[in-house]
Design a protein that fits this description.
alpha+beta
Length: about 80
C-alpha cells in the first residue's frame, strides 16, 4: 500500500473543501396561488406549471377524502339506527 510523500496541511485541506458548503434553496412564487415553489417545477399547492393545470391539487384530494369519510360515517350511523 502506498503512502503519501508528505502530510497535507490543514489549511490546504480546508481551502480545498471550502466550496463543499450547501447553498440556499432559491424559491419563486407561483403566479396563480402566490405560494413559494421551486423554479421550473410544478406548484404543489395548485398543481399549475407555466399557467396550465398539470396536476390535480393534493388539497383537492384531501377534501375529497374527507368528504368520502364523512359520507361513510353517515351511512354507518344510519345502518346502526
Amino acid at each position: 500500500m502506498s503512502v503519501p510523500a508528505k502530510k497535507r496541511p490543514v489549511g490546504e485541506k480546508r481551502r480545498r473543501a471550502a466550496h463543499f458548503a450547501l447553498k440556499k434553496i432559491k424559491y419563486a412564487s407561483c403566479p396563480k396561488c402566490k405560494k413559494p415553489k421551486l423554479p421550473h417545477a410544478v406548484c404543489l399547492f395548485c398543481g399549475t406549471y407555466q399557467g396550465r393545470e398539470v396536476l390535480k391539487s393534493h388539497l383537492d384530494k384531501k377534501e375529497l377524502k374527507k368528504a368520502q369519510k364523512q359520507k361513510a360515517r353517515a351511512a354507518e350511523k344510519q345502518q346502526g339506527r
